[in-house]
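Work Package 4 report. The design task specified in the project plan requires that, given a folded chain encoded as structure tokens, an amino acid be chosen for each position. We show below one input record used in the internal validation round.
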């Protein structure tokens, strides 16, 4: 899941450089959501893992 976050972050940066602000904003939102889901799952695995 962290890989998808990095991919969407890179897409957002590249789209922002070329001026596609709508695409950049969408990709940045997806990357942000995936990052927070990853962090929550990571913390849960630390707390409830063996």
């Amino acid at each position: 899941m962290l890989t998808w976050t990095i991919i969407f972050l890179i897409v957002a940066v590249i789209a922002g450089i070329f001026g596609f602000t709508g695409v950049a904003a969408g990709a940045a939102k997806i990357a942000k959501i995936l990052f927070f889901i990853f962090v929550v799952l990571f913390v849960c695995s630390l707390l409830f893992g063996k």
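The mean pLDDT is 86. Validation will be extended to a larger panel in the next phase.
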